[in-house]
Amino acid sequence: MKRPTIKDVAREASCSLSTVSLVVNDRGYVSKETRERVLKVIKDLGYHVTRTARGLASKTSGNIGFILREDHFSQAEPFYTRVFLGAEFAARELNFYLLLATIGQRFSERNDFPRFLLEGNVDGLIVAGKVSLQFIERAAHFGIPIVLVDFALTRERFPAVLIDNRAGAHAAVKHLIECGHREIGFIAGDLGHPSIAERYAGFKEALRERDIPYRDELCSTNQPDTRVIDGANAIRAILARGAKPTAVFAANDAMAIGCLRRVRDLGMRIPQDLAIVGFDDIDMSSHVEPRLTTVRVFKEEMGKLAVVRLVDIIQKKIKHVVTTHVPVELVVRESTGGKPTEAGDVVEAVMGLSVPMK
Fold this sequence. Notes:
This protein is of the alpha/beta class and about 350 residues long. It folds into three domains: about 5-60, 434 Repressor (Amino-terminal Domain) (Orthogonal Bundle); about 65-165 and about 300-325, Rossmann fold (3-Layer(aba) Sandwich), CATH 3.40.50; about 165-295 and about 330-350, Rossmann fold (3-Layer(aba) Sandwich), CATH 3.40.50.2300. The protein has helices spanning about 5-15, 15-25, 30-45, 50-60, 80-95, 110, 115-120, 135-140, 165-180, 195-210, 230-240, 255-265, 300-315; strands spanning about 65-70, 95-105, 125-130, 145-150, 160-165, 185-190, 220-225, 245-250, 275, 295, 320-325, 330, 350, 355. Strands 2-1-3-4-5-11-14 form a seven-stranded mixed beta sheet, with helices on both faces. A four-stranded parallel beta sheet has the order 7-6-8-9, with helices on both faces. The protein is elongated and about 85 Å long.
């Protein structure tokens, strides 16, 4: 049996397509008599509202674009995959479709610009992770709202959903200090990324509060990326210069795991010779040996919040720019020698705030 369409409803109800669309979207003025007639026909025909029908009244596509850098869409380091999953759940609940596109690390408008933007097929855009400023500037010219996730610009032009990076780093380093460490190193890559810069600031702030001097020779912050191999190279560089940290805070779990594997290959014991803390709580962090102490980021929640914020802007025409800091939690496991939390219970919760950007 052929599925009824909006045209069938309009014909049977003796009214226009736009009138049917106004009824199914519950928008605009339609007389009570006409509305009741349309609703009766919808029920009699068993018609289900399609996105096209909704779009006739709202002049929207019902689509949200989701942008990731190609190197951030990875099984090995699935942080942004989880963010996307949370966004997909929220979009589904709010009756939007989520369209994913990836762009290169070095943005090329000719090769990387998503078709859904060129064709005007999205009502708004979510950009997750650090991407080229050139891409964001170009996307802004299309006049649709943009929400950033795990990234923010110096000029506060776009709403953002961010991790409470500074507080999370502070909690991680405080934990190491409470375990008796004073020779604490830090490994990272791309300090130009706002999240990593904030984690670096939280690291130094925790040391300063306990009157522990910051020592540059214990740190490596010039790695090209934050992958597993970069973590291995960072700790190798620290040890090669003769530095002897007793603990390391890594900018993310991938680097922490690379560090862990490298020092184990050198015959060092974890945590007896070197305690290690990561950041993100990716799935792999609880499967390495020893299991990794880390700062848990609620990745799916970040994706959900981004979609909710974007849909509010689309539907309510909100103009003010707001940034939201998502809470994080310190999860203690064997890599620091502290008492492991049971089944993911948290030792310390670090709550963020939703605050308007000035």
